[in-house]
Amino acid sequence: MTAAQKVIFPSASEPLIEITREGPLFIMTMVDNENRFTTEMCKAICDSLDHIQETVDKEELTEAAVVTRGQDKFYSNGLHMEKALVVPGFTEDIFMPMLNKILLFGIPTIACINGHAFAGGCLMAMAHDYRVMRSDRGFMCMNEIDLPAPLPAGMSALLRYKMHPHVYRSVVLEARRFSGKDALVNNLVDAVAEGVEGTFEQAKQVALKIAPKAKSGSIYGLIKEEMFPEISTRLLANASKL
């Protein structure tokens, strides 16, 4: 895969994820409007990550990082309830394993939060190693308490380990909406920038800074496994053992 190539998952006729290269950076762009999670979207994300890992291994890259982003005003607006919840075991067998794959991915990951990251979108962003958020538009939020709906143990563990206790309380018990500036103050993100393009440029700067750590090869992923054993165990606890 050269810098000029674009790889599309699941296919060019039904695009959900587009992958492009910028130097050592792999840019994963979700291109399904609000980027709600369905079986197809989750599979496209996992297949995209597998493709990136295979490319890094094949080319023996010593610098690499993944930047995920949405388009316009949405990073991801969460689960597509009508499509996702009619699939038996969607949460346990499809969505949470996808989060785990991002969480433990063996290459640095940066979420470029260009717009709203609600519910599942917030969880996906928090599964990344680093986060950069747009400062002038968009919110991060977990709204289960207002639906109302329970928060599965794996999702709760991801948020609990990635957030300070008082922030976690506000997120899950109050459904507080965090703007980019609020998210930065509360350590939910590592940097903010203005506008879609400004946020993308800032995310790439963060990614370029951490990309050399990919030279450690499998060690990067192994260290993350040791960082987050409880999150991973809980995310996969109820997955089918097929």
From TrEMBL:
It catalyses: a (3Z)-enoyl-CoA = a 4-saturated (2E)-enoyl-CoA; a (3E)-enoyl-CoA = a 4-saturated (2E)-enoyl-CoA. The chain crosses the membrane at residues 102-127. It holds the Pfam family ECH_1. GO terms for biological process: fatty acid beta-oxidation. It comes from the Eukaryota. Keywords: Lipid metabolism, Membrane, Transmembrane, Transmembrane helix. The keyword Membrane applies. GO terms for molecular function: delta(3)-delta(2)-enoyl-CoA isomerase activity. Signal peptide: none annotated. InterPro entries: ClpP/crotonase-like_dom_sf, Enoyl-CoA_hydra/iso. CDD domains: crotonase-like. One of its GO terms (cellular component) is peroxisome. PANTHER family: ENOYL-COA HYDRATASE-RELATED, ENOYL-COA HYDRATASE_ISOMERASE FAMILY PROTEIN. This is ClpP/crotonase. It comes from Entomortierella chlamydospora.
